[in-house]
From TrEMBL:
Source organism of the structure: Pyrobaculum arsenaticum
InterPro entries tied to this protein: LbH_EIF2B3/5, Mannose-1P_guanyltransferase, NTP_transferase_dom, Nucleotide-diphossugar_trans
Residues passing through the membrane, by range: none
Annotated compartments: Cytoplasm, Cytosol
Domain EIF2B subunit epsilon/gamma LbH: 298-383
Lineage, opening ranks: Archaea, Thermoproteota, Thermoprotei, Thermoproteales, Thermoproteaceae
This protein's UniProt keywords: Cytoplasm
Segments forming domain Nucleotidyl transferase: 5-254
UniProt keyword Ribonucleoprotein, yes or no: no
Protein name per Swiss-Prot or TrEMBL: NDP-sugar synthase
Length: 407
């Protein structure tokens, strides 16, 4: 069985900005907790015991270490124990080098699972491991069918036995893609994976600093004739590396996950609320009663965090409201996410948008198809459409912005 997972987190997550301007992509709030926490919990419940972060960069290390530390609290929160460790502070030149450095430093000599910090997924670890072992694979890659744009993924061509014959990283044209099976960034590595870098082809990659799994290592391993296999994962998988994909994943999982997986109670059909303290129970009861009476309008699938305060005539549809958020009277939030401790004023409209942490949206503002990062103040009667606002900005009263990035 697989006991160890390595999570390389070293990029700047440019595509997910401005949410990641000052926050590690692995720690961006997602369904009211850090994104990577869902993946760790999913794997821990299947027997993965040790998690190693291959961390590079100030925000990545600060955010991840300050939250997870050694992982001892995980057992108390979820009833399953894990241990969290970290790659030594070395400069790595790609996600494969982060994994290699971790394997070498901790002298890991058993199969390991590699996952990515900006993915959410459903994976049968035991089934993937049995497949990997039956094929005597050097690397097994979890693959998913993708029918949309393939230019942002690695794409694999496979034989009848699922052996990967060719791997094209981010094909520029549809006709350059050998199939519609894309690399999920989930890899099962054999116990002798690190030995590859002492061989001729691996040494050459290492000396040249070409140490990205998709762009460098996997194609070279295939060229070397080592057995690389594709495992077709039947569960869901989302790369949430852009705001658009983030919201798509949220909408899917609001419908897919059980109340237990959401850490919530279903207080009314498809309305989930978190919190287990006595105060939380009282507040959840009041919210449910106000929805029944029509003082709050709730449509679709909704996740409410702990100690959320909702004003009169608030309308929420298919959205996530994080812990300690306050929403003023007559405001509307649709198809959106509002992260923790934000304050939404009265008569505010938010649609298809992500509102970061500690944001103050003042009365009468309209925000549509936009991303507002942490610690932003949006002035009264502002209008933001297709706008990205970087952290710590203050927008003046009545400002009108469209198709704009405020850095």
């Amino acid at each position: 069985m697989v006991r160890i997972a390595i999570i390389p987190v070293g990029g700047e997550a440019v595509r997910l900005r401005p949410l990641t301007a000052e926050t590690s992509k692995a720690m961006v709030r997602f369904l009211n907790r850090p994104l990577i926490e869902l993946s760790i919990l999913h794997l821990a419940r299947q027997g993965v015991e040790e998690f190693y972060f291959g961390v590079k960069g100030y925000y990545n290390y600060r955010d991840i270490y300050d939250y997870f530390r050694e992982g001892r609290w995980f057992a108390e929160k979820y009833g399953v124990g894990i241990r969290v460790r970290y790659m030594p502070r070395v400069e790595t030149r790609g996600n494969a080098e982060a994994v290699y450095a971790t394997l070498m430093y901790y002298d890991i000599r058993e199969p390991v699972l590699v996952i990515q910090g900006d993915n959410v997924f459903q994976l049968d670890v035991k089934d993937m491991y049995e497949f990997h072992r039956s094929k005597k694979a050097f690397i097994t890659i979890a693959l998913k069918e993708e029918t949309s744009d393939l230019s942002e993924f690695g794409v694999a061509a496979i034989g009848e036995d699922m052996r990967i014959l060719k791997f094209v990283e981010k094909p520029k044209r549809r006709e350059d893609a050998p199939s519609n099976l894309v690399n999920t960034g989930i890899y099962l590595l054999s116990e002798d994976f690190k030995d590859f870098f002492s061989g001729e082809m691996g040494s050459k990659l290492y000396s040249e600093g070409r140490l990205d799994f998709g762009g460098d290592v996997i194609p070279t391993v295939i060229e070397a004739g080592l057995p690389v296999y594709g495992y077709t994962s039947r569960g869901y998988w989302f790369d949430v590396g852009t705001p658009e994909r983030y919201l798509k994943a949220v909408q899917f999982l609001l419908r897919q996950l059980t109340p237990g997986e959401l850490e919530a109670e279903e207080i009314l059909p498809s309305v989930y609320a978190q919190g287990v303290s006595e105060q939380s129970k009282i507040l959840k009861g009041k919210i449910a009663e106000r929805i029944k009476k029509g003082a709050i309008k709730a449509e679709g699938h909704i996740l409410l965090g702990r100690h959320v305060q909702l004003g009169d005539n608030v309308h929420i549809r298919d959205s996530v409201i994080d812990n300690y958020v306050v929403v003023g009277d007559n405001s509307t939030i649709e198809d959106s996410v509002v992260m923790d401790r934000s304050l939404i004023g009265r008569n505010v409209t938010i649609r298809r948008s992500i509102i970061g942490r500690h944001v103050y949206v003042k009365d009468g503002s309209v925000i549509e198809d936009s991303v507002v990062a942490d610690n932003v103040v949006v002035g009264e009667e502002a209008s933001l459409r297709r706008v990205k606002v970087w952290p710590h900005k203050t927008l003046e009263k009545g400002v009108r912005l469209e198709g704009f990035s405020l850095i």
